[in-house]
Design goal:
Number of strands: 2
Structural class: mainly alpha
Largest sheet: 2 strands, parallel
Mean pLDDT: 92
Number of domains: 2
CATH architecture of the largest domain: Up-down Bundle
Strand order of the largest sheet: 1-2
Distance between the termini: 50 Å
Number of helices: 13
Oligomer: single chain
Helix content: 40-55%
CATH topology of the largest domain: Four Helix Bundle (Hemerythrin (Met), subunit A)
Length: 308
């Protein structure tokens, strides 16, 4: 039996209905530990209802779902005999993994397909900032990006491109898929083909926009794009809360990346989270709850081997 369990606060599983995202009082129940407990209760109950109490269980997932699969096996070994975790960044906490790893990997995806593709994307950010520094420039960029409304900030266009390139790398599957958006097989390769198909001297912004459009409009049914104040097409509103409480994964952008270099500041993260939710992130909670540091095992073995 293959079972997909919906995570609390996502999809239709809203414990407080339309008020589920109203405040920290309700959002406080949105945690990975609560979600894992949901899974344990559901799996146990389902096996009882199906008269299959002794049936073995293997949990699986990708990305955050993969993290949950790993942690479920750790926390509920008596419920699941195994876990398959794909692209699960369980070590992207504290200082376990270099903070630039994620965007370095995304950039390498594009660079491995085409150095020209990588170079075009790397160059577009400064051009957007320069052209979008005044109202006339923003108007022209809005036309280029086929925005439904004239954009007010150049960062809106940068974020639109950033999301397209990042998410496409995340779902660079060898077959057509619609996990995030409708996409062809090997979408990173297809994006780079679009960029490389432009003649020499073509506008870098036009190249980047056309490539990113593959992500947002592969089916060709979008007449214009919402750049600002749009809805939440991926249903990720709950992730903002989780990233501001327990899922604190520091990420930076190195000079080798195709994205603009940036650092990570806990203070800035904390202030942003407090402004949005009136909570502050717990930087070390995940490794406290689930582990992750290699030294823990060696310390444990040293401790238990000490003579009494």
């Amino acid at each position: 039996l293959l079972v997909f369990i919906e995570h609390r606060f996502y999809g239709e599983s809203k414990p407080f209905g339309n008020d589920s995202y109203k405040s920290a009082d309700t959002l406080g129940y949105l945690t990975s530990t609560q979600a894992l407990a949901d899974f344990a209760v559901l799996i146990t109950s389902l096996k009882q209802n199906l008269s299959a109490v002794d049936a073995p269980v293997v949990v699986f997932g990708g990305s955050y779902g993969g993290m949950l699969a790993s942690w479920f096996r750790l926390k509920y070994p008596h419920v699941a005999m195994g876990a398959l975790a794909s692209s699960a960044p369980i070590l992207q906490f504290d200082d376990i993994t270099p903070w630039s790893s994620f965007y370095d990997a995304v950039s390498q995806d594009f660079k491995s397909e085409s150095l020209n593709c990588f170079s075009v994307i790397k160059a577009v950010w400064d051009v957007l900032d320069y052209r979008g520094s005044n109202d006339s420039g923003l108007l022209e960029l809005s036309k280029t990006f086929r925005a439904c409304k004239t954009v007010r900030f150049p960062s809106s266009l940068s974020n639109w491109l950033w999301t397209a390139f990042t998410y496409t790398a995340m779902v660079d599957y060898p077959t057509p898929a619609n996990f995030m958006m409708n996409l062809p097989a090997y979408p990173v390769k297809e994006m780079c083909k679009i960029i490389d198909s432009f003649p020499v001297g073509a506008d870098v912004v036009e190249k980047a926009f056309t490539a990113a459009s593959l992500y947002y409009n592969y089916t060709g049914d979008q007449k214009c794009f919402e750049m600002e104040g749009g809805d939440d097409p991926h249903g990720l509103s709950g992730w903002g809360w989780q990233a501001c409480t327990e899922m604190v994964m520091p990420m930076t952008v190195s000079n080798e990346s195709m994205f603009p270099p940036s650092g990570f500041s806990y203070e800035e993260k904390s202030e942003g989270c407090f402004a949005s939710y009136e909570v502050r992130p717990r930087m070390n909670w995940i490794t406290t709850e689930y582990g992750g540091h290699v030294s823990f095992l060696s310390d444990f073995l040293m401790f238990t081997s000490e003579p009494s």
